[in-house]
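subagent[fold] <- orchestrator: predict structure for attached chain, return tokens only, no commentary.
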Amino acid sequence: MPRARDKSYHLIMVGAATPEYRALLPSALLAESRPEGRVRRTARDWFVDVVFFLFAVGLALLITAAGLEQGVDEPRSMIDLGLGLLCCAGLWVRRRWPVTLSLVVSAIGVWSVTSVGAAVVAFFTVAVHRRVVVTLAVGAVGLAGGYLFPLLRPEWATGSYWVEQAWAAVAVALVLAWGLVVRARRQLVLSLRDRAHRAEAEQQLRVTQARQAERARIAREMHDVLAHRISLLSLHAGALEFRPDAPPAEVARAAGVIRDSAHQALQELREVIGVLRADDLTEDAPDRPQPTLADLPGLVDESRAAGMRVRLDRRVDDLAEVPVAVGRNAYRIVQEGLTNARKHAYGSTVDVIVAGAAGDGLSVEVRNPWPVGVSSEPEIPGAGTGIVGLTERATLAGGRLEHGRTASGDFRLWAWLPWPA
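subagent[fold] -> orchestrator:
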């Protein structure tokens, strides 16, 4: 393989250094990055090597036969043939050591004319597999040996010395051009193949990343939805536990809320798990119905039915006019605020304020008194990442979120979301 690679091949090989990228690349492409001497010959390589070997051996036999007909000394011809066949045998290692083989054959070719076939194949291999500078240096060594050959073997001289040297230079130039053309074509084919493999691998990576992003989004939705439902379950279950003497009507009402909340939580969990198990999470997949700001009064009524004291201050004329994406984010922020108030400040009055207009943005505020002392209600467990998720949600929507204790001692969760005009 050529040592010089274009930028695309360099990028694909660098990318293949990471385990994730290598897992997506075809094994045939990774095999290209191995050192050349370790790559096994393919059937095509064996065919080409056999053809080149037979060409060099056949040319050596023809030259020997022609020399014997012209009266060249037979013992010298046999020695010449032996050296030529030795050079032909060396062609089987031309892929591993092309430069070394070409230099050795050039040195033997100073005296042996039958090595010319092996010299052509060896020089062609250098032109294909090595840099142009190295190829030119090896060709210069071969030409230098060609200048010495007529002086050592004058019996093979058939014409003017300089004319023969000029033809030798033309022959070297033709072999060099042939090798460079083959090298350029191989690099082009390899570059196109690598780009195709890289495009396929990058597409698979994009699909994988899209699936991971979709699963992360679903996980956030799972937290927002199930945390609210399960906190209601825990609240009513705790009330039944600590008030076993409650009137039967209240017990029945609490049990009904527990049943309905458990049913809804299981249904939503089943939908989420079903999506997570699907293999075709693409952008074209339909989303499950999402709440909007118009569903906010139902959320407040649900919390009131669970025993919370919630005051809703609507300063928006029509909640349905709020864009769907903005309304969904605002709904999730209020839902998480009510869940946190139910966990950490049960029994306190929670104020929910929704204000804004198109062009000015939408502000959402959830405020409740800071809890004093230790609550007698059982603590509802949580992951502690709800506020982090809300901050991320507001930031991705182009807004901002603030939370913390105010100067008056209340806990305030406030968010501003852009509402285009």
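orchestrator: received. Logging for downstream: Residues 293-421 form a domain with the Heat Shock Protein 90 fold (CATH 3.30.565.10). The radius of gyration is 41 Å.
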